[in-house]
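Lab notebook: predicted structure, single chain.

Context: the supervisor wants predicted structures on file for every construct in the current expression panel, including those that have not yet been purified. This is the next one on the list. No modifications to the sequence; it matches the entry in the shared construct table.
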Amino acid sequence: MPALNPPPENPKLPAPSKDTPTFSPDSVSVIFVLGGPGAGKGTQCAYLVRDYGFKHLSAGDLLRAEQDRPHSEFGGMIKDYIADGKIVPMEVTVQLLENAMTDYIKQRKEGEKGARFLIDGFPRKMDQALKFEASVCPSQFTLFFDCPESVMQARLLNRGKTSGRADDNAESIKKRFRTFLETSMPVVEYFEKEGKVVRVEASKGPEEVYEEVKRRMGERGFEMVAK
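Prediction complete. Output recorded below exactly as produced.
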């Protein structure tokens, strides 16, 4: 990750200003994937990667990898934010995503069609959404998995038995639900007004949910890639 200035006591990192986004939506397709914790985003993303040729980027996974990276300037800060159910400062998350996209595009074969990215669990706040679209790449739309809190909680507690994730416990789960409702739902509502949300009911089994996802992807002009 490119060096950033060390965070002050109350981290608020300076973001470099850009006149235009790094990537054009004409050559790079970005779909944001949102839903409460336990809505099944990761499973659906895996299906879309398999069938539609997307590169899956999880903002949470990138942050967890950064917190575990030896000598990371921000590892301790990220760990504290995640454990408390808070959102990591925007500039860190956006920079990690841009770096991952750049690395993937560099690895692609010459002449391959435009890169497709699913960005899972992002944007979690309005400032992230606006910053990413202005400086990295405008999104095609947001795929929103709508799921009752009771269903999500049961899934997460079950996952916590084997995941080893520090935030798959009852106390962290409650904080994550509250954070999602307060900060991420306004993002969904904002993009919905722009006509840039595909809302999928996600309380059913993963295969049933995916049938609806495929139908809605087709409506937005995305076809499965040839195997």
